[in-house]
Design goal:
Blueprint: E1 12-18, E2 24-30, H1 32-41, E3 45-48, E4 53-56, E5 65-72, E6 79-85, H2 113-127, H3 133-140, H4 142-161, H5 165-185, H6 190-201
Parallel strand pairs: 1-6
Antiparallel strand pairs: 1-2, 3-4, 5-6
Helix pairs in contact: 2-5, 4-5
């Protein structure tokens, strides 16, 4: 604690990152008391600069952040808080706060694309752009999304039974996409599924 350099307002920026996917979820600020409460409780506490008060992440939404590691940079003036996120991290309902893109160069590595796809679906869910297939599914309701998941699961089974490798890859992509839309509709973060798989492995 003594190595953390709080600014003139007594605050230090805290970057919150998903423990499993590595996705940056949000940026908030901690004062000494918020950091102490975070260390003691194992859940994130922050200081609201607009309300001038402490707040416990998830207290009203139920979307708590279980802390797995807190690191600080070489200057001691910024924190990296790695968490297991329950539900959406952003107050908009998006998985993380950084769902809008100012500039993009290239595409993320294939192994990271599920997190990127979740971010894109979160953006569609919040901004509701006209003509979006994701928006169309969300507005059609959960029964329509469930029907699509069932259809795509059936297509995966058929492709596997036919031993059609290319078709299996294609249909599995469709299934994963519609599963992510379903998770977004139900306010379940992909990181929660990954955390459950990690728990079973342990």
């Amino acid at each position: 604690m003594n190595e953390i350099k709080f600014d003139q307002a007594g605050l230090v920026p805290a970057i919150v990152q998903d423990w499993h996917s590595g996705q940056v979820l949000m940026l908030a600020y901690m004062n000494r008391e918020a950091l102490q409460k975070t260390l003691e409780s194992g859940e994130t506490w922050f200081y609201s600069r607009s309300r001038n008060e402490l707040w416990h992440k998830g207290e009203t939404s139920g979307h708590f952040q279980q802390v797995r590691r807190i690191s600080y940079d070489c200057d001691g003036d910024a924190l990296l808080v790695q968490v297991e996120q329950t539900g959406a991290a952003c107050h908009t309902g998006a998985a993380g706060c950084f769902f809008r893109t100012l500039q993009a160069v290239g595409t993320p590595p294939a192994e990271h694309f599920l997190a990127e796809l979740e971010r894109i679906i979160s953006q569609r869910k919040v901004e509701r752009p006209e003509g979006s297939y994701v928006v169309k599914l969300l507005e059609a309701g959960v029964d329509r999304i469930l029907k699509k998941v069932a259809e795509e699961a059936g297509e995966v089974i058929i492709a596997a039974k036919n031993e059609d490798r290319a078709e299996l890859v294609y249909e599995t992509g469709d299934l994963l996409f519609h599963l992510l839309v379903l998770l977004a509709r139900q306010d379940v973060a992909l990181s929660e599924v990954l955390a459950e798989l990690a728990r079973r492995h342990r």
